[in-house]
Specification:
Oligomer: single chain
Distance between the termini: 22 Å
CATH topology of the largest domain: Rossmann fold
Strand order of the largest sheet: 3-2-1-4-5-6-7
Largest sheet: 7 strands, parallel
Number of domains: 2
Number of strands: 13
Radius of gyration: 21 Å
Shape: globular
Helix content: 40-55%
Number of helices: 17
CATH class of the largest domain: Alpha Beta
Strand content: 15-25%
Order of helices and strands: EHEEHHHHEHEHHEHEHEHEHEHEHEEHHH
Length: 412
């Protein structure tokens, strides 16, 4: 099967959620013998350096960097035509022209199905498309995310205002593009439920969760926290710290939770690990008991050498890989309710859930003081995650949908 994949990012290295998900899908499809033509936009210029690592996975590779000026004019255009900022931000005239030419090539004419990764790529998947079926890999419901963010106290006004604008347009766009697509896939049942409540066709929505990778060996000999920690208890929050929800959660934790923990556990060290944190979060880094690492080549060593993982998310949509990954590694997790909404109730026994700042601090302190009980809960969580979230199974579900799309009747 020949598959055209359109994505608003370069899915390498496979660290944060969207990159991780698409990279594993691509590797699975390649392993199954399918031919992939990959077209990538990116707002992160440095990610262009990683594009060559994707060459073994695809026949055709197109990459394009969207500049700050592109983003500015796209957002103005979105405001003028009444389109969500999320979708309008990734308009690319150059990519549209390249795709039009591509559809006329021998490779383009032989395409069996199009995989549009994220809602923002839906317009490009349909414009100029000569009738090839489109599978919309929406991942998260952006309506759910925007709805939470616009009402989150303490979040930046600009972000709440943008979320408030996007919320109403996304409610319409998610339904419209789902109706046009052969099938829409999302990462969790709560995301699917949001789409159903918006009015999207139920028979066009399929849940495909992320998988987890089995632990590779034991702990590394040297802790990545060695310089700052010694034998001090480590609390880790792992994820892309440049992502709004993670930044908001980390800052909330540092302001509302961490001071309470430090009064009881003065030796404890907190580390916000991963991504490209902005100045708003970097200013908390002191190199001693508050660490903001920025990008790291591997997240696993930071998790496996932590005594506790936290997911203090006030805003969350989709599946939280940071929770699943920590549990898969057997690391105890204290999480806010929003961070475990994707989990079935029976799976939440392995997570310590805390609803507010005081409770979150108490649970962190308790987990550090009673590590045996925290690790017992984590073992439950690990069994549940490894039993129910596997990349091969997720890849198989996507492959089945693409095969059905390829065999579907073409519009006349």
């Amino acid at each position: 099967m020949n598959i055209l994949v359109l994505t608003p990012l370069i899915p390498y290295p496979p660290h944060d959620g969207d990159k991780l998900r698409l990279y594993h899908f691509l590797t699975y499809l390649k392993k199954r013998g399918h031919t992939i033509d990959l077209f990538c936009l990116t707002r992160v210029e440095s990610d262009l350096h990683y594009a060559e690592d994707l060459r073994p996975l695809c026949r055709t590779l197109y990459t394009e960097h969207l500049t700050h000026w592109d983003l500015f004019f796209n957002l103005i255009g979105g405001l003028l035509i009444g389109q969500s900022l999320n979708v309008s931000s990734h308009f690319s005239p150059k990519m549209r022209e390249v795709l039009r030419a591509y559809w006329r090539t021998a490779e383009g004419q032989k395409i069996d199905a199009v995989l549009a990764h994220r809602l923002r790529m839906a317009p490009a998947a349909f414009e100029g498309n000569p009738g090839k079926p489109v599978v919309l890999e929406m991942t998260d419901s952006l309506t759910a995310y925007a709805g939470q963010l616009k009402g989150t106290s303490g979040a930046r006004f600009s972000r709440r205002a943008a979320a408030g604008w996007d919320y109403w347009f996304l409610k319409r766009e998610e339904v419209e593009w789902t109706e046009k697509a052969f099938r829409t896939t999302v990462i969790s049942e709560p995301d699917a439920q949001v789409l159903r409540e918006e009015g999207a066709p139920q028979d066009k929505i399929t849940v495909i969760p992320n998988g987890v990778e089995p632990q590779r060996g034991g702990k590394a000999r040297r802790s990545p926290y060695a310089k700052a920690s010694g034998d001090k208890p480590i609390v880790c929050f792992a994820g892309n710290m440049g992502y709004t929800a993670n930044e908001d959660g980390a800052i909330w934790f540092l302001k509302e939770v961490w001071p309470k923990v430090k009064r009881e556990m003065p030796q404890a060290v907190f580390a916000a690990v991963g991504g490209r944190p902005r100045k708003a979060l970097r200013r908390f880094h002191n190199g001693q008991d508050a660490l903001v690492t920025g990008w790291v080549p591997q997240i696993e060593p930071y998790l496996t050498h932590a005594d506790l993982s936290v997911a203090p998310l006030r805003v969350a949509a989709g599946m939280q890989n940071k929770v699943a990954q920590a549990l898969a590694l057997g690391v105890p997790v204290v999480a806010a309710p929003a961070a475990v909404a994707w989990m079935p109730l029976k799976g939440r026994d392995g997570v310590i859930v805390a609803e507010n700042g005081d409770r979150f601090a108490q649970e962190v302190i308790q987990a550090l003081r009673r590590p045996a009980a925290a690790k017992a809960a984590a073992r439950k969580g690990r069994r549940f995650i490894l039993r129910n979230y596997r990349w091969n199974e997720s890849g198989r579900k996507l492959e089945d949908i693409l095969k059905k799309a390829a065999k579907s009747p073409r519009p006349q």
